[in-house]
Amino acid sequence: MLSLAGTKSLRLLLVAGQLAQARCEQATVARGITLTGGSQGFAFTKKRRRMGSPLAPERSGSPGPREEVVEVASKYRRLRTALAAAAGRAVKATIRLVNPDRGSNLPGRVALAVDPEALRILSGKLAHPIVLVSGTNGKTTTAALTTEILSVVAGKVNTNKAGANLEAGLASALLDATSGPACFEVDEGALPDVLSECHPDVILLLNLSRDQLDRYGEIDTVASRWVEALAGKGPELTVLANADDPRVAHVALEVAGGRAAGSGPTTDLAGVAAAGSDLGEGDPRRAGPRVAFFGVEAHPTDETAHLPAPDALACPFCRSELSYAMAFSTGGGHYHCPACGFSRPHPTYRVNDYVALGLSGSRVSVETPSGALKATFPLPGLHNVYDALAAAAAAVEAGISTEAIAEALCRSTAAYGRCETVELDGKRAFLLLSKNPQSLSQNLRLVRHEAEAYLNSPSAASREFGAEKARKSGALLGTQSPAGPVLPVVFALNDLTADGRDVSWIWDVDFAGSLNLASGEIPPARFAVVACGERAESAALRLAYDGWDRSLLTTVRDPYHALAMAMAEAPVRWAVPVLATYTAMRTLRGDLVRRGFAPPIEEARN
User: Fold this and answer.
1) What are the counts of helices (DSSP H) followed by strands (DSSP E) for the chain?
2) Where is the domain boundary, 392, 415, 438?
3) Do the bridges between strand 362-368 and strand 553-555 make them parallel or antiparallel, or are there none, so unpaired?
4) Which range, of 229-233, 370-374, 406-410, averages the lowest pLDDT?
5) Average pLDDT of the chain?
6) What is the pLDDT of residues 470-492, one digit of tens each?
7) Beta bridge partners of residue 453, listed in sequence order
8) Distance between CA atoms of residues 195 and 203, nearest Å
């Protein structure tokens, strides 16, 4: 992708960075002083103060040998970071010339190769508040909503809009950062490492469920690493956790000291905080982060589940089976453990009323310590209600009024690939990122709701499925049928590194049950699925085992070709759902950008 000249320039920048470090080390040796760090940076640079404070304390009188060495080392440290930023920006500019929808990871990798401490130093230039968002699902949408709200009062907000949420992605986003506040989504597996480099004011913990087990391991492993990373933080950090997810609640309670020695867990965070001064100096519960919870109190009946999600069945404290008063389709709900007494913490931020508006959006009433707010926003589904609630909680913690929060939510738009709408030749498609069992199940529920609304539309019934129309057959998918309308759906499945190599998770999803339809006088719809991507055949096989009519299954490798086929055969008023894993979504969206059907990610929300 890079030209020969560009490759040589990068090599020169790497060498310059290494020379800067070597010069700094020579200066320390000449003075007989050893500063540790090597390629990972110097120890003195890790003594970071809050934003706006100088890196080194003020000194009076003539500088001594150590002070001179520190000044020399600081000069070369700044030079190396500047070279790293310049290299990253050059790579980003080159990539954007080739593909304006790319360049969210490689520039950061180059910058970190030149200076391994670039992430820490660049993030140190940000202003407050700094918000990090992490969890298995909902990170990109929550970060986008939080950024939208913060921008009401702060103007420009630094963020990783493209969803590149590993260290390299954050470094890429920081290459063009201003001195304003920031909101970044962070991969749940990378959160501990990012916390060692960045110092946020607020962290949003959304949920934990199975995702890419070949990368992360089991959920308990991720939760344990979260606890270890957060327990060492001080009270300047606020942790906002999802009370309805038992594993996330467990993490937050452990961080807050929610298990007293020799007793069971407690959700009395006020009591834990009051007892903090009596804890030993080395106890992680002493002067730890402030913890608060958010959750949903009211919801539509069809968002309840007969059984809780498999990832939320066992008590995270004692491993006994949890009892649910109410289980949500998003996983989790209102729970308690009969064995040890662990129960859902009372949320400080809560949704008291929720009205689903189909794929057009949601209407919510939210209670906060700063007062109530009501908002109608264009994001559908209970999972997006949680995202909006988390964003509102972070904004209140940042001191933003409920009026400004409601206004920002009402004018928000979908993040790329998260119920994003694209239009081709007068027909619409919804891009729905579906990267694990939980997110795919949620999106199938949205498809079912939209199909029900479509079938119950009198105009659709009379115009699309009249007797004359019913006698016709579609050229490829058969969009009309005497047994009822056939609605095209695209399912794009990849198994690249960013998706997780193991795609066996698709067997944990109930496709037929999630899309089961019945609609009064109108015959129930049937879904014609176009399976595509690197594992198109695996997707089709899964549906065949679910009893799918073989005549309604088509396999195409290229996602854009699959979408074009589906939209060509779709009824005029049917918006084609595209269920896609991460890299399949990026591939499809890149093709849409190149053909002018979608804006580049960096421009999508400007």
Assistant:
1) 20, 17
2) 415
3) unpaired
4) 229-233
5) 79
6) 434 444 444 444 556 789 999 99
7) none
8) 10
Residue 508 shares a structural domain with residue 555? yes
How far is the C-alpha of 446 from the C-alpha of 110, rounded, in Å? 40
Query: Distances in Å between the alpha carbon of 374 and those of 60, 142, 362, 558?
Result: 56, 18, 11, 42
Residue where the block lists tokens 């020799």: 262
Provide the whole-model pTM.
Answer: 0.79
Task: Answer whether residue 58 is part of any domain.
Answer: no
Number of domains in the chain: 3
d(CA 579, CA 558): 14
Which residue's structure tokens are 């891009």? 431
What is the residue range of 85's domain? 4-49+64-114
CB–CB of 124/388 below 8 Å? no
Q: In the numeric block, which tokens belong to residue 459?
A: 């105009």
Scan for tokens 């003075």, then name that residue.
31
Structure tokens at 529: 């699925």
Residue that the structure tokens 């020695």 belong to: 261
Question: Nearest CA to 300 among 273, 330, 270?
Answer: 330
CA distance 481 to 424: 24
| Same domain flag for 446 and 479 | yes
For residue 482, what is the DSSP state? T
Distance, first Cα to last Cα, the chain = 27
What residues contact residue 580 under an 8 Å CB cut-off, 6+ apart? Answer: 417, 431, 432, 433, 434, 490, 491, 492, 493, 533, 559, 588
Q: Look up residue 124 and give its two tokens.
A: 């140190």
- Residue 71: CB partners within 8 Å, gap ≥ 6? 63
